[in-house]
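Two proteins were folded this term; both appear here.
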Amino acid sequence: MGQVAGSQRRAPRAVLKFGSSVLRSPADLPWAVQEIYAHVRRGERVVAVVSAFAGRTDALYAAAREHGDCERATAALVAGGELESTALLTLALERAGVPARLLEARAVSLATRGPVLDAEPAGVDVAPFEAALRAGRVVVFPGFCGVGEDGATTLLGRGGSDLTALFLAEHLDARCVLVKDVDGLYERDPALPGPRPRRYARATWEEALRVGGKVVQPKTLHTARLAGRALEIRAIGASGYTRVGGELSCLEPAAAPRRLRVALLGLGTVGGGVYERLLGRPDLFEVVGAVVRDPARHAARGMPAALLATGVWSALAREPDVVVEALGGVDPAAEWLQAALLAGCRVVTANKAALAAHYDTFAPFLQGAAPRLRASAAVGGAVPMLETLARLAGETRVVGLRGVVNGTCNYVLDRLAAGVALDAAVREAQSAGYAEPDPGFDLSGRDAAHKLSLLVRALDRTAASFAVAGIDADTPAREAAARAAGRRLKLVATWDERGARVALEALAADDWLAGATAEENRLELQGADGRVERVHGRGAGRAPTATAVIADLLDFAADGERAAAAASAAA
């Protein structure tokens, strides 16, 4: 999963607050990552404000009371709960391919005033936030904590993380989004028996204070009203939400939630990762089938035998809403992709080879505001290359692109630069899960060429010429020569109106692409208006690819919610 950095127009910003209702334990971290990634791939810069895991704050308060009554020491101890969850979320983002930076209250001089255990934020140095956001990194920040006038740690009391998010949103000129375990404010508690209540699309401050006491701390709502700062209340994976602020309240028609029925084609590295994620959200997804070569082997590992099948038609007979193709290669993947689409299913794929080989066949399904085929993970894993390209192309003509788009090759070249022999570097890449048992497809440059082809075709363009060369036996000598000249050897995919190529290039050390390390991917886009857009992140591995696939599934779920809401409104 990656992040975007642009050279001119400032990207929109969002401060997302994750409380203990959604971060109950470390097991919930992947879904917080998923929500952050949804905003990242829409082109937003994100600051994630994090509460402690459920029960952690109470446990630390109890531990403090057991040993004494010093407020300063209590604040220092309790603040550790937020720092723990913040650090773990930062690690989870990096693992999923999203560049992230952890900042603490002292690093940004988050000053507070008032009692040590119930203070209010009073000032902040936004420069560290600005630097991290300009570099295309998600900032992860512990809520609830600050620094008092005497330099001691302070706490912001009940609802403190919400206050932190609201305060930072105001100073960073960002949207404030409170991520909860419910997708907004309702006219009554939706967990209670009876007819499903209606959700507020918009709520005035007064209405939010009347109905939202269990969802948002009144202290936060009062503070937001006094500041005239609107906020949003959302749930992870939900498209609907409530916007609090304004002069009028508006209720939406009641609509029963519906799970997305998913069939998986393949349960290997990517498919298995997606399956594990889907099992974690039974409220959103129902896995209705999985096509594998050896059902008995998967059943022996605990997969329900009733879900397993050996052919695409068996899976389609179970009437899935969405088919996830995770087979890899061209055959039979391309045929099965087409079968699912022709059967009326929506499809998610990470298969760049099948798409590149049959692009004209699949192009009609990739187009439009609500496409039937989504393939974000096919180019860059969780680095939102196709999304960034589409946004820029919607605003200006794209005249060129260049990128490091194969994580395996970049990892191998990095290891060569560290003095490792070519064969050993490839084995390390395989051990780390970045290279296949047969790494030839990556090392030859063909994988990068497929990605480049998909990027160019997404612009509805073609290349006048297309040359491809990758890593070979001469590469170590070329790398040594580049290093001696103060340059860095990278496998660069390039397209402009003269043609396309994938080739090793000795880049100047200050070239942005030269900064790609290990399995990182980077893409630089050039607009006709002079704008340069950049996106980067980890592009190889199970977690980044699964993150992008789940994001496509959530987009399909959102399409369904919007269609249902429109039908309900029309009725």
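Next, the second protein.
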Amino acid sequence: MPHTRRNCVTEWSLESGQGYADPFNDVTVDVAVTGPDGAEQIVPTFWRGDRTWTVRYAASAVGEYGWRSVCSDETNADLHGREGSVTVTEYDGSNPLLQHGAVRPSQNRRFLEHDDGTPFLWLGDTWWMGLCRRLGWPGDFQALAADRVAKGFNVVQIVAGIYPDMDGFEPRAANEAGHPWDDDFTSVNPEYFDNADHRIHHLVSQGLMPCVVACWGYYLPQMGVEKMKQHWRHLIARYGAYPVVWCVAGEAGMPYYLTKTREEDMAFQVEGWTDLTRYVRETDPYGRLVTIHPRSTSREEVNDTSVLDMDMLQTGHGDRDSIPNTYRRAAAAQTAEPRMPWINSEVCYEGIGEACRQEVQRFMYWSCMLAGACGHTYGANGIWQVNGRAEPYGPSPHGMSWGDTPWDEAMQLPGSAQLGIGKGLLERLDWSAFEPQPDWVQPHATQDRPVAPYAAGIPERTRVYYLPRGVWGVTFTGLEADTTYRACLFNPVNAAERDLGAARGDADGAWKIPLPGAPLLQDWVVVMDAE
């Protein structure tokens, strides 16, 4: 009898004595799992190779679970009608993803929380090509994971082998076992995914939630909707039992870079990815959070926003030139209906174009978080495409290379640590109850003046401000007449703090930072806690 702990993955396999000419396409096997409360889940299995089908399962409650296999070939007694049971006991470890469960939208649809209601502040890193052999297993992969854990990251956005920025299955996309599918997208390569399994499992074991991206959007016209459903079913069977987030596609509506039928491809992709997003929701027995990586916003990548749980933004890689669009997209995401949590999932990879350095990283993080984001995704140029020292990624289909910084150098770019510092500060506060409060500071950011102070918080409790150009000329406004705050100047570069003493509004509810000695000319965070 299999035994596992709550939220932990267990697996077992079914062996067929009967062979099939094309097992991946000829046969499907599901396992119907009945929980202690009588509820049933239909869990897809994945073809493991040869005559083996494997099911992975994780339960969110303790108790006894029974299972029964259901095969599309009902005459195969090895695969159809098999029965067994699983005993689930309490998880007693320290991994937050297993302690608290997978992530979902909060009831008010403004932030993310674990299954047990614990708030989850998303700090993601971008490893689009992290399953390829250029990020070697185990040494390279584990070193990058350890660095991100130490800095406070808790999400990794990673593509399931069908990568952006290339034409099909080039050699640079392979892992130790080749490519995830054969060249004409007829069948998966089980050995590829066996190697990917080690990496996905390691992320979860380190408390890094995989945001699994099926592929880049422009592959849909090549594969077709039905074949892409097979790809998604395989991913759900392989990884759905882990505490993952599903990202249905990357830049879903963007056609292939060199296509000559852009408009037709875009229309097909938006329609097709909407259908596939519904399919993922219907097929996943665990109800993992579902989103889609966009050209601009997730809402624009589908023709039915009800299929999404979270809105992702992509707001540019143009250094400071990307700030106005970031402001505009963030403001629109905060007020859009239906309400859903949102993050900036791609903006200004650090070092791209020899720009987008750490001060831009801090601005993008703090401006989005105080505008209402439920988290933020960082990216480093050199990591997303996994540049090796001896084997840089090289040119894109359009002929230009995005840069050759090796991944292990990009790992040390200072912005990643500084965003971790920002996350650490917010997690000390009741951040999930914050609302944007632009009128709490003058001047404040607007569409015409986005490089100006931002503010958010909880009236009469906590106020947090981001001052991108320093403290001079800034007035904190709307302070409640009967509330005294303790103010702190926080350095978003190194986490140094300076006590500013009591903050009380004047007759107009206004207050300014006393400056017996001016702090450095840089961006600052101000925190006010009610005494």
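The radius of gyration is 24 Å. The mean pLDDT is 97. These notes refer to the second protein only.
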